[in-house]
Every structure is written in structure tokens, then in C-alpha cells.
Amino acid sequence: MEKKVTKIGVLTSGGDSPGMNAAIRAVVRTGIYHGMEVYGIMRGYSGMVENEIVRMESKSVANIIQRGGTILKTSRCKEFFTPEGRKTAYENLKKHGINGLIIIGGDGSFRGAQIFSNEFDIPCIGLPGTIDKDIAGTDFTIGFDTAVNTAVEAIDKIRDTADAHDRLFIIEVMGRDAGYIALHSGIATGAENILIPERKTIIDDIIKALEEKERRHKLVNLIVVAEGEEFGGADEVAKVIKKRLPQQEVRVCILGHIQRGGSPSCMDRLIASRMGYHAVECLMENRHNVFVGIVNNKMNYTPLNEAVKKKQRISEEWMTVVKILSS
Ligand code: ADP
Question: In the structure, which protein residues have their CB atom closer than 6 angstroms to any atom of ligand 1?
């Protein structure tokens, strides 16, 4: 018979994303509502290894739904990669009587959770907290909407100056393995081209399109590039374009970490609250070692080991939209 989960540990791990606090709040309050004890584990898996574990009350999560970052802090924990590190982590959880874990993080954190739950008898539930939206099994990840809106706001401003000076701007957004921030922000700001890791960058096509636009005196050009794009980001793409089109005034802007911070959008607060609530329900219903997602507005539960294998795919339809609307 499955054991009843009575004490939950919650942690945020890997890259931070706006909305993680809203998810922590949802987990803490739902757990307490159901009569469970909830513990906050500090700095991701590091807090498990180093026994930095604190009891959380309803008031511990007051006034955080609107705050970016994570009150539990996050880290990348080397010790957790080792069996000894994970054993220490397990012993620390046992000291507190914790018998269920909720991990808010990206696919790396899920991989760690999967390995941990295979080794020890602690059920783990994942919540997708990542600005990259690079996990299959959910239409949304906590933080993506805020990050993409931050990028849109910044690119709109760049467009003003690009227009004033008739310049070509190459703007780099985050996304080492996934091009969703680039794709969405690029479409929403009317970019001429969007370069993403999921597709081959055909530089000849970009040059041809720029030359054609020059002939038509269409001078405002924005190219949005994901950092993990084939050439290696905006600086590299700019070098190639400058060489081929020396007459073009090319400027590079790398948006960087502003995309991670800030108050979460309404959408991110909503999905974080909904997913956090359902994560606790999963533990209560013995639906173990899954991550919580939303697909077609319904809750969707993917086994952790599948979540780490699959990536989301960029639909070809979007690329056609980009091509037609930027012509
Ligand atoms: P994200 O969750 O944002 O993808 P990372 O890939 O950096 O971030 O993973 C976060 C943490 O999860 C790592 O620092 C490590 O502690 C843990 N982790 C990731 N992969 C593994 C693994 N294969 N084995 C054990 N722990 C892992």
C-alpha cells in the first residue's frame, strides 16, 4: 500500500524564473489546507545536502505572489550529481520526516528528481519553472510569459531607435536550447527574421531578404536571435552580415538577464498557482514522480523520466507566419 504523504518539502532549483514565488505560495497554502506540514528547502538541492530546511507557515508566503526571483533561492548543486550527495540529502529529509518533495525547476532539476526518487522512497512532483518553455508535456512553463513580455517591451524600444537611424538591429534573447522566447517576441514585435536553435540558420536567405528590403527602401530591420542559434548568437550573426553587406549599419543588443527578473505577469501567477495546487493534490492522490503541466487548458501529468527526454517542437506554421508577415 502507498504511504500517505504528510510532510512536504518544496524547493526551487536551476535557473530562476518569475512566478516561482507564486508556485511556492500555492504549494505551502494547499499543503497546510490539507493538514500537511510544509518545509522550504533553501537553494535547491544544496539545501537538501546541507540541511538548510525550514518549516513554512501560511504567513511565510504572504506578499510574495507579485515578486520575481524565489524566496527559497536557487542553485546548481554539484553534490547532488553524486550518490553520496543524494544519500546525505535523503538522510536530511528523513531527519525532518519529509515524505514528499515538490521541485520547481527545469528539465535538469527534473532529471535530478527522477534519479533521487529511483534511489529512495520519496515521491517527487515537478513544476516546470523555466523561462525557456523547453519541456514537452505542457503548453506553459512558469516564467515564460513574463520573460517574453520583458523581451517584447525591450525590442519595441529598440525599434524606435532603429527607425530613427535606419539601422539593422540584431537582438539576442535567452534560449540556449529552445527558441520560444525568440519566436514569440520576434513575431510580437514584427521582426524580419527570427533565428532559433531548432532550425538551421541559412545566412544566404537572410542576406537576400535584407537586400530585397533595401531595394524597396524598407529600412527598419530587426532580427531576433536566440542565444543558442547555430552561429552562436547575435555577435556572430552580425559579423557575418557586416561582411556580406558592408553598407548596412548593424547594431547588436543582447538583452541578457533582464529577461529573468521582474514581477511575474498575470498569466505566470495564474499557472503557478494552479500548478502548485495540483502538485500537492498529486502527492495526496499517490500520483507520484510526474511533473505537472497544462495542455489544452487541462491538467496534464508526465512521468519525470519522459519529461527529461522530450523537448517541445516549434511548429512550422509559426515560421510561415514570420516569413509572410515580415515581407
Ligand atoms: P534546470 O533545472 O534549470 O534545467 P540544471 O540543469 O542546472 O537546471 O539542473 C539543476 C540542478 O539539478 C543541478 O545543479 C543538479 O543539482 C540537479 N541535477 C541536474 N541533472 C542531474 C543529474 N543527472 N543527476 C543528479 N542531479 C541533477
Answer: 13-15, 45, 76-77, 80-81, 105-109, 111-112, 115, 130
Which residue type does 269 have?
R
Q: 3-state SS of 16-69?
A: CCCCHHHHHHHHHHHHHHCCCEEEEECCCHHHHHCCCEEEECHHHHCCCCCCCC
In this structure, are 130 and 224 located in the same domain?
Answer: no
Angle formed by the axes of helices 234-244 and 203-215, nearest 10° = 60
pLDDT digits (tens, 9 = 90+) for 201-256: 888 989 998 888 888 876 678 999 999 999 999 999 999 999 999 988 899 999 99
Q: What is the CATH number of the domain that holds 279?
A: 3.40.50.450
Q: Say yes or no: 138 and 156 in one domain.
A: no
- Is 129 part of any domain? yes
d(CA 265, CA 66): 8
Q: Which of 16, 107, 132, 145 is catalytic?
A: 132
Task: Write down the pTM of the prediction.
Answer: 0.95
Question: Same domain, yes or no, for 137 and 231?
Answer: no
